[in-house]
């Protein structure tokens, strides 16, 4: 089984390489609750040592689905579809998704998704604690002096 | 200028469509601090009504850079490169990046990046408040009953 590895690290960052997204099938996630391996799923938060953000990647084979609904306790999720076509369900709403579909789901939303096409689907899922964001866009950032390395 | 629009919405979610990622150049971000438009940059948190996560997308032309370093006040960032090749700098470390490079940067890290190749580069940037995440991977989630719609 492939593992994501730290490539570079410093006091203020960690950098990893997960490889080409079309090769995500080489990863497998040992699901601690389902007690089975989920092929094509990779979580990177712990290896990145992130303290506010969890990120996962998933490649879904043609005509595959997540055969259950799930909700969250404290974490908001944002689903980002970067390849393929399928459907997404939250509570009693079902809608089509494709490259460029992005869905925010509140913790208690009951969600599932499927790849109902003849091509692979690739998605990313972001998690963070609900009601913690203080600023959108660039308002938390500020320019700093320093040498830009070449 | 292209704008991301809400496609579907409910009590527990908002879904938007931003289109094909290779067409991100059709978006432009009116930067409130630089007081100029940044072409190829799109923030989606506010339109998603997210409360814990900001997400932005950026397409960078061949041989282009961010000509300044920046830091953050309270927000951790995770940079995810999904197409292209270039370089990323945090503080005094400079390293190569490509599809599948993922970098967590703490608020005070001084960061910049460049596309030093002859192809476009596409990246995503996730922001959330530092030190708020309670659980990695699936530990915040739980299966729920309900009808899976077809």
What's the topology here?
Two copies of one chain form a homodimer.
Chain A: E1 5-10, E2 13-17, E3 28-31, E4 36-39, E5 41-43, H1 45-48, E6 54-60, E7 64-65, E8 69-72, E9 75-83, E10 85-90, E11 93-98, E12 101-105, E13 111-115, E14 121-129, E15 141-144
Antiparallel strand pairs in A: 1-2, 3-4, 5-6, 6-14, 7-13, 9-12, 9-14, 10-11, 10-13
What does this structure look like?
Two copies of one chain form a homodimer. In chain A, the strands form four sheets. Chain A has a five-stranded antiparallel beta sheet with strand order 5-6-14-9-12. In chain A, strands 7-13-10-11 form a four-stranded antiparallel beta sheet, with no helix packed on it. A two-stranded antiparallel ribbon of chain A has the order 1-2. With 150 residues, chain A is mostly beta strands. Chain A is globular. Chain A is built from one helix and 15 strands, in the order E-E-E-E-E-H-E-E-E-E-E-E-E-E-E-E. The relative contact order of chain A is 0.19. Chain A has one domain (5-129): Jelly Rolls, CATH 2.60.120. At the A-B interface, strand 1, strand 2, helix 1, strand 6 and strand 8 of A face strand 1, strand 2, helix 1, strand 6 and strand 8 of B. Strand 15 of chain A pairs antiparallel with strand 8 (69-72) of chain B.
